[in-house]
Amino acid sequence: MKLSTSLEYNKKQACERFPLGKSFDLITRDLYLGNTAAWFLGVNGMCRTEVLQEIFSDLPNPAYMKDSTIEDISRDMASKIGYAQTELTDDWDTIVSAVLSGPCVLLVDGFAQAILLDTRTYPARSISEPETERVTMGARDGFVETMLFNANLIRRRIRNPRLTFAVRSVGSDSRTDVAIAYIDGYVDEALLRKIDESLLAVRATSLTMGAKSLEELLVPKRWYHPLPSIQQTQRPDVACSYLTEGNILLLVDNSPSALILPSTIFQFTQSPEDYYKSPVVGSYSRLLRFCCIFISLLLLPVFLLLGSYFPAVADTLSLFPVEQLSSGRLLLYTLFAELALDLFQYSAAHSPSSYSGALSIVGGLILSDAAIDLHWVSLEVMFYAAATMLASLALSSTAFSEGLRCYRIFLLLVTGMFGLWGFLCGCALVFLSILTTPSFAGKSFFWPLFPFNRKALSTLFFRKPTYMAQPGNVWKRERQKHDH
To answer: Looking at per-residue confidence, does 204 or 53 come out higher?
Structure first.
C-alpha cells in the first residue's frame, strides 16, 4: 500500500499497523519543518538518541529552515538533513520492515513519501574468542550477534572491492536479515543463484535458533542423518579463508556464526590451529585428528565385540583383560560408561567456566571409582570409554563429534545384541547413512574424494605451506598484473 499526501491519514494508517499507545518501546513525536507539519516514528533503544537530537534541533530552527514551506522533499532531505544514511520511500511495507529493524521514519504533510533515517543501534556484547574454536596462537576475535559487526570483521581482513554482502529477509514474522557474502569473480555463479532462490523460497515464520534454523530449512534431512550438512564457524579468519577460496557465507542477524556453502564432510575435520603451526606440526595434528574419527566411532564397539563374543582372540592379542562377563552385562557396562561420560561432558559444557574443569575431572574420578566398586562397570570399560571421549573431544567440530556419538551408540546396541553380524551390518548402515547425507544444491558431500581430486585431497590430509596453499587464480591474477 502506498502513502497518502495527508499526514493525518498516514498517522491513522501507522496506528493500524503498529500498536501505538500500547507498546511502550514505540515512540512518536509531532514536529514542524519550518511551517510544514511532520511526524516521527521509531523504536526506543534502537535509535541513536544523540543523532536524532541533533537532527531535530536543526529542523525546527527558523534560521536553518529558511523556506517556510517545503516544496521538494527530496531536495530538502539532501540539503537540510545532515545525516548520511537517509532515503525516501512511498511503500508502507518498506516502512514497517524498516521501523521494526531499527531505522526510524519521518512523515511530512503534503507528500506521499516518507524519509527513512537509519540511525539504528543494537545492544551487542563485546567481541571475544569463540569458546568452541579456541587456538593457542592467532586472532582472538569472533563473530557476535550483530550482523553488521560480523560484516565489518570480514571486511577488515578482505579489502577487496568485489567483496559483496547481499541482504535478504527470511521469516514472515521475524523478517530476519540474512547476508549472502561472496567475492565477485571468485564465486560459482550458479551456486550463488541457487542460494538466492532458496532463501526466497524459505517458508517459515521465524528463524528461532538463528543460523541453525536456516541450515535445517536449506537442507532438510531424515532422522537417520545425524552428521551436519553445512559447516558453521564463529571465527572471522576461518570465514575469510573460505571466501577467498570461492565459497559463499551466510550471515544471519542475531546469530554469532556463519554458514559456509558448499560444505563437504572433510571440512568438519579442519581446524584453524593447524595453520598457526609449522607445516610439519600442522600435518601431524591433522592426521591425528583423522585417526580420532575412527577411534571415536569404532573403539568401544570393537571392544564390546571382542570382549563379548571373541574373548580368546582378545586374550591372544593381549589387547585387554576381560572379566568373565556375559555379553548382555558387558553391553550394559559399556552403555553406562558411554552415557555417564556424556553426562559429565554436557554438565561441564553448561557449567560456569570457573569450576567446569574441576567438576568434570573430580566428578568423573568419583563416579568411575564408585561405579567400579559397586560393580556397575569394569575398569576396562571405563578406560576405553575415556579414550573414546578424548578422541571425540579432539575433533574440531562439536556437531560432527555428536553425530559420530549417535552412530557409536547405534553400533554398541546392534553389536551387543547380534554379535559379529550385528557389528558388520551396523557398520554398513552407518556407512550408508554417511554416504546419503544430503548437501546443499546436490553438491558432492565427499569432494574431493568424489569426484576425485588428488591435489585437493592431499591438501586436506597435509598442511601445505602458505605459498603453496594459495588458490590458483591468485597466481593467475598476479601474472596478469605483471603483464600489464
So the answer is: 204
Q: Which residue has the cell 561472496?
A: 182
User: Is 362 a residue whose pLDDT tops 80?
Assistant: no
Q: Are 219 and 439 in contact (CB under 8 A)?
A: yes
At residue 272, the pLDDT reads: 85
Q: Can you state the percent helix, strand and coil of the chain, rounding each to 5?
A: 55, 15, 35
Whether 356 and 432 share a structural domain = yes
Report the 10 Å Cβ neighbour count for 346.
Answer: 11
Answer whether residue 59 shows pLDDT above 70.
Answer: no
Question: Strand pairing of 231-233 and 176-183?
Answer: unpaired
Measured CA to CA, the distance from residue 136 to residue 124 in angstroms comes to: 26
Which cell numbers hold the place of 479? 601474472
* More confident site: 382 or 414: 414
- What b-and-e string marks burial along 52-87, b requiring 16 or more CB atoms within 10 Å of the CB? beebeeebeeeeebeeeebeebeebbeebbeeeebe
Structural domain range at position 60: 7-117
> 283 and 469 in contact (C-beta within 8 Å)?
no
> What gap in Å lies between CA 346 and CA 349, rounded to an integer?
5
Check if the beta carbon of residue 238 is closer than 8 Å to that of residue 145. Answer: no
What single DSSP character describes residue 50? Answer: H
Q: Mark residue 377 as left, alpha or beta (left: phi above 0; alpha: psi -120 to 50; beta: remaining).
A: beta
What are the angstrom distances between the C-alpha of 484 and each of 162, 338, 478? 20, 63, 10
Average pLDDT, the chain: 83
**Claim to verify: residue 179 and residue 91 sit in the same structural domain:** no
Cell readout for 267 is: 571440512
Looking at residue 44, its pLDDT comes to 87
232 and 192 within one domain:
yes
Residues 360 and 428 in one domain: yes
Q: Cβ distance 266 to 129 under 8 Å? A: no
Rounded to 5°, angle at Cα 187 from 253 and 252: 5
Q: Quick one: 302 and 424 in the same domain?
A: yes
